[in-house]
Every structure is written in structure tokens, then in C-alpha cells.
Structure prediction request, 399 residues.
Amino acid sequence: MFSEENKKILSFEDGKIENRSDHVGHYTLVDFEGEQAFHTLRDDWERLWWQSEDATESQTWHWQYLYWRHLAPKTHPVIIIARDSHGTCVALAAFFICRDQSSWVSKAAFLGNKRPDYHLILARPNLSATVGLKILEHFALKFGKRVPYLELSNVPKNSYTGSFLGHFLANETTPRSTTLRWETQTYAVPLPKTLDEYLKQLGPRSRRDFRYDRKKLCDDFSVDFRVYSTLDNLGEALDAIEMVDRARWGSNSLYSVSSQRSFERSLADALCEMGIYRAFLLHLNGKPCAFVTGAVVRNLLKVSSIGYDRSLLGKFSIGKVTNFYAIEYCIQHGYKEYDLTRGGEDYKKWLGAIPSTNLHLRHYRTRFDELLDSRGKRIVSFLRNQSWLRGSYHTWLRR
Prediction:
């Protein structure tokens, strides 16, 4: 059970806040705090995720809970839900207070901060945008005076949350506050029904590379492309992924940090149990050399990570070849999209990806808070460029 300190209720109808009990047509906002909130809301959370029309693996209960447990255990999560007049949970979003990595200034954000490629409010299909907007307004009311700024990042423009993000904070702006809004691009490959159709939609060079690069690899190596999706051989896949990632990034590998390593492995195990995990491994002469990992949601594959061994000559293009193999697998299994997410790297266009938009919003309490954040970024950037400090930082992280 939750005490009144950990559970607060607000009712509204058609965008109008009400100070009375729930009736037909009304929705009630309830916020839960702390670790127990995850366990209390798990059933509602999982049901909403399966119903959602735009959620990704980052909004699953497992992703959110494991992120908090492994990477943010000292923070205090707040989960805001909306219930209809029957008491059914129809929308849910998790938030927390953290320090921004670029400035070390405290902020309130979606749980997960900038780690997920997409942030969303989980919502029942065809739910009124008013409900989601009220959740964000409640978030601002709860956190607005406790931190220098609020940040909602990586919200897909064409999602339920993206449909009303632009209206958020309309009533929160004051002469002292400032709000920044900007957009970035994400990239996804639309997948046709056949491989031949896919090749036709590529540019001439990519169409040639699709077969030529594979042949070049097969001439010099014994090539083995493997797909992992079950718990039976997950350990083998994770060991291979870690080996490649360490070869690629050295001491900067995620797997060099114990908390990051435990998060990645625990998450893969959880998504495997859900039946949505996919790992694609390219082995050359029996050695893993490149990988793509992701999750299948609504018949779309969202790529979570990509890596390759830099010790192999660039002429073999093993990263691109692994993506081509993965795309071929997705087409064979009838997936509709191969989502390469954030970033405008050239290889995404070579694979046939087209852009879509992510929305970002940052709201500072005062102009002084904006200045504090700006100065903090300069200081942090300077410190990170000091080699002796970088070494000490990585040593401390690996403890």
C-alpha cells in the first residue's frame, strides 16, 4: 500500500481540472514513487505496452525497471498514470531527477534520460491527447520548482506524445523562464515484401555493394551469419557481442563498466523472455567480428546497438555487410521496417533509410538557470578533454 506521501490524485475532464471524485468521462491522475511503484504497476504497465501503437522496447517495464536498478539506483522514480472512470489505467509515464551528462546540472526528465532512442507516454489506442497533456502538466507541477530545468527529449513527432508536446508548457511560461525546442532526425529503412524489391529501392552503389561486399568476404574468410532470439543460446551471443564491443572501443566499451554490463545482459535476458530480442552476429573464420542487436515490436525491428572489430581492414565493410544480412533476415520474416534510430551517419542512407523527426523540449525556471547550464557545459567539456582526468574517470567507473 502507498501512503499519501507516495500517492497523489488529481481528476479532470476534457482538459479541465476537477476537485471532485471521478465520474463518467473523467480521468484521474495518480503518481507513485519509489521502487515499489514498479512492482505495483507492473501488470498495468505491461498491458499498456502491448496495446500501445508506438511504444518501443525502451518503454517496456523490464527496460525501465532494469535501467533504474542498474544505472540510476540512487534516484527517486516517479510514475504518473491516468485512470478512466472504471479505474482502468489508460496512460503511464515514468520520470526522475538526474544530472545532465553534458553540464552536471540537475534536471527532471523521462526515466532513462537520453539513453532511449525514443521517449513516449504509454497510452491506450485512440486515447484523447488531453490525457497525455495533463500527465506532462502534472510532471511540470511536481518537478518545476525542484530543479533548474525540465527536459523531454527524443519524442517521435508522429507519436501520441509528439502530437501534443508542442502544446506543453503553454501555461507554464513566465517572464523569468525560457523554453528551447528543437528537432533531430532518426532513420529507418522501409522493408518491401521481397529482397529484389529492396535492392531496387537502393542507389546504384549500394545495390552493387550488397552482393559484391559479401562475395569479397566469402573469398577471404569462412563466413557464418547467426541469429539469436532465445534463451537457449543467449549466453553465447552476449559473450560474442561483448568481445566485439571491447575490440571496437577498448576501455570505452560499455562492457568495461560493471553497471552498464549488468544492465545490457539483464535487459537482453528479459527481452528474450518476452520473445522480442534479436541479435545478429557475423563470424569470420569462427571468430565474431560484427553484430547488430535489436527488438521486434509491431512487426518492426528497432536496432539498439551496432558494433564491429576495427582490426579488420575497412575494405571488407563488415559493419555494412552485417546490416545487409540483418535486413535480408527481416524481409524474409515479413518485418515492415528496419529502424536505425538516431544519427545521420552515411551508412544509414546507403542502406536505404529515410528520415523522420524527433522532438526535444527544455524548459528553464529562470534565465539564470539557462546560463548555469550553458557555463556547466563549457566546464564539463574542458574537463573531459583532459587526458589525466579521463583516465581517472574510467578507473572510477569500472569499480
The first strand starts at residue 7 and ends at 13. Residues 48 and 292 are 28 Å apart (CA to CA). The first helix runs from residue 35 to 40. The radius of gyration is 23 Å.
